[in-house]
Amino acid sequence: MNEVKPSDAGDVALRHDWTAEEARALFALPFADLIFRAQTLHRRHFDANQVQLASLLSVKTGGCPEDCAYCPQAAQYDTGVRAEKLMDVDAVLHEAATAKKSGATRYCMGAAWRSPKDKDLDAICTMVEGVRAMGMEACVTLGMLTPAQAARLADAGLDYYNHNLDTSESFYSEIITTRTYDDRLNTLQAVRDAGIKVCCGGILGMGEGTGDRADMLVTLANLRPHPESVPINMLVRVEGTPLAETQAKGGPVAVDTIEFVRTIAVAKIMMPASTVRLSAGREEMSDEMQALCFLAGAGSIFLGAKLLTTANPEADKDHRLFARLGIQPRDIGPIDAETL
Fold this sequence. Notes:
Strand content: 15-25%
Shape: globular
Structural class: alpha/beta
């Protein structure tokens, strides 16, 4: 195993051969050393005082046949989320224009499907084209894709496709049984083969251990190239989902703040040229916790009061926090995938 030394921070090249032992060693570093290393590497690839603003809209809500234990959109759970049809294209583009006025440079559209039908992609591709025409990056998350569907999205100009691994392969079956880990990896490969950038990360606080977080990051960091975008989510427990019921019965509680920040930092060290995205769960995070996440290398947040179906801080609150921290919104900065 390669020894982990904070003094090596400025000399580490992009790697795709991480081991579980190395990832665990990073998690075990003294906190100050870990943050120093992550921040040093972050500054090699990004302006440390800039954060990209993105916006996320549920364009098709509820009724999903999957059994993801965290998701309020699963049809089999009674969470109060109603199944709705795909939104009208004009309505979606109106929301995108509003997001751009608030400062968003990436617009993400999510649909609660196991996988889209080919006919559904007609409207999705029109949405993508409309978002691109506004000068924003376009991202979608639609479930599993075939290579042909990925190619259609690429032809429409899609910048990013989000498809999270959620957790480690060994813990995955504790959270989801309706699709396999390989299903997710196959979709990522179809997206990459089509020339679309990959947005892929996970969720913390589902009962997984530090080893599971390390293993998930090893899987991501050993993809070639690295995902250009790595969202790290804090679980939002929604009443009616199995994970919320587990907590009510004395199960795992929210992940420790320092452990969450450590995960941000380790992701940045292992994938330094990728944008680590501070995603779901910010409504429950203090300003101080978010500041630590930015210090650890988080380079993007979602603007707006809702993420798909769960709460998110109001944009004004985020702008006030940025002002206190001296952070400016980051313009679109494409990453050369060949270097990752």
